[in-house]
Amino acid sequence: MLERLRQLLPPPAGPVEPGRPDGWAAVERSLGTALPGDFKAFTELYGSGTVDDFLYLFNPFASGQDGNLLAEKDRVLAAYGQTRARFPDRLPLPPFPEPGGVLPLGRTDNGDELYWVTAGDPDGWPVALLESRAALQELHAMPVTGFLAALAANQLTSRILPEDVLDRPSHRFTPLG
Fold first, then answer.
1. DSSP E strand stretches across 58-112
2. Which residues on adjacent β-strands are paired with residue 129?
């Protein structure tokens, strides 16, 4: 999937805050779980940045609090838990670290949130997309690089993401900075 993504959404020549192979063990210890291999490879290749100036994946190697997976996890999960307590029918998936719980992955400029559903082997975790007002939740049975590749190929079906993002003539990754 990563190779397909590279063709559809070329990585930057000089990634900002790229992941480091020797840094993942500490990240995973801090999170309390292994992470999908495709996400680690994506982070090492792309670093911090946005897809179409709209979608941002959290990066555990980001220097600031904003957008850093380790810093965002507790904050996002606390908000998710509060919303789920008020609207359990809208958010059937439990928060991480409960079995099969959602683990924050990223967000959009509209305030929509992306999560992994932590059921089974991390390399098989699907992506959940939650609308900003928690009115709608989608489950995409693919890894994060598959999700991004489908978006970049204009093959992603979503009722949450705006049409102008889903149907762009071309997509791009822009490093932060």
1. 102-108
2. 114, 138
Could you give all domains of the chain from N- to C-terminal order, each with its CATH number? 2-162 (3.40.1580.10)
Q: Which of 65, 48, 66 is nearest to 57 (CA)?
A: 48
Sheet containing strand 113-117, strands side by side: 137-140, 127-130, 113-117, 102-108, 55-57, 49-51, 173-175
Asked whether residue 7 carries a pLDDT value surpassing 90, the answer given is yes
The first and second tokens of residue 146, run together, are 């598959």
- Tens of pLDDT, residue by residue over 105-132, are 999 999 999 999 999 999 999 999 999 8
* Angle made by CA atoms 45, 158, 86, in degrees to the nearest 5: 100
Tally of helices (H runs) and strands (E runs) in the chain: 6, 7
Who contacts 176 (Cβ-Cβ below 8 Å, separation ≥6)?
A: 16, 17, 47, 48, 49, 50, 67
Can you give the pTM of this predicted structure?
0.95
